[in-house]
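Continuing from yesterday's entry. The apo prediction looked reasonable, so today I'm repeating it with zinc ion included to see how the binding region is handled. Same sequence as before; SMILES copied from the compound registry.
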Amino acid sequence: MMRRLFSQLFLGIVFLSSPLFAQQKFFEKVNKELDQLKLKAMDAYLPTASEIDNFWKAVATPAQLKFLKTSNRAFRDLASHPSYTWKKNVPQQGNLLWIYGIKQEKIPHFSFRGGKETKTYRDKTTQVRILVRQENDGWKILKWETSCSFCNGKGVCKECGGTGMTKPKKCWSCQGTGKRKRYTKAGVQEVKCFVCKGTGKTKPYKCWSCQKTKGKCSMCKGKGWKNILNKFEEVYSTIPSVSSKNYFDLSTPKNAAQTILAIESQVKKRTVEKIGEFFKAVQAFAQKYFAQELIDSCKEKGKNRPFRLPGSSKDAKIKDVQKQGNRAIVLVEEYASVGGKTRSYTQAYFFLYTDGKWKWDNSGYLCWSCKGKGVCRYCHGKGKNCWSCKKNPGKCSTCQGTGFRMKRK
Ligand SMILES: [Zn+2]
Ligand SMILES: [Zn+2]
Ligand SMILES: [Zn+2]
Ligand SMILES: [Zn+2]
Ligand SMILES: [Zn+2]
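Holo prediction written out below.
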């Protein structure tokens, strides 16, 4: 008897918890896999320590190599170690189901103080909901949303609390007292504050944030939720191919600069390859979990979305070589696309002659103040009685006469 009751109770628990367990598992699984993809994206866009070694070891001085490694954000552990808790299901018409849950993260934050970097964590909680449809081979995702970070999922304008008007603030003129002192020949008189007309408060004005949405959160239009699936469109766009050069010669500063430009083209090619691998991984993820109509719409939108490569496709040009003893500066005209337009700028590469080779030691930009001349632009180098170049008479006070702003201090 006891035994039967026990087994019934046990069966009852299994029967109850089993479907819940499946939803918890699905919620955790898809979210964890999505996080893995995010780490893969970071890896695609940022070179790793070993890659920097592979590419730059033979051409850079030890100090420059160390700088390249430490200045790269890839070496910071940016993982937020999220955990997921499934909360509830809300069935919808047509075999659809909203799965609600919570994502909890510790967001790393880096700060520099006294030349030392410290890492602290900030707790972040995000509501997540996924719209799924039961199909033969499991649940397929149709929508994926997170709570709006702007309004914390409330849908109400954060600036005005939904009233459309800002809250009246303490009057700046009378400090909220509504009264001002007036000094006259007869003595000090107390009068009504002319700014707030004696109310002590400033007039409320129309909220700038929700002018269009009328009290609703301007980011999510009052829905409280934000669709995150639009990021999947990009992975169906076409990545242009990148050519790279093979060139290695450190016998002259000019050749060494050519070598650096060739390696930069190889780094770019490697980045593009890694982005391609990342896109394929995201596509495989979508194939596994997305409903077909969602994949189709991502593909359609991705096709019309040009993929922008980091940097510019225009080749850099060597403009000038200045040599002095065991040091040399090579000025290179480089290009960057800013908002779809190609702009040129001059980058300077600094070389040090060591062990029979011209090694890359630093890089920098022309000083904006003296345009690279190093001469004080107020006294044109005279230096006498000049307010600007007291410290270094005649020299540009922005760059102290070097003509450059160095990347490595
Ligand atoms: Zn919002
Ligand atoms: Zn507002
Ligand atoms: Zn006042
Ligand atoms: Zn300068
Ligand atoms: Zn001067």
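Comparison notes:
- The pocket of zinc ion (ligand 2) is lined by residues 157, 159-160, 164, 207, 209-210, 215 (CB under 6 Å).
- The chain has two domains: 22-148+224-303, 317-406.
Will overlay with the apo model tomorrow.
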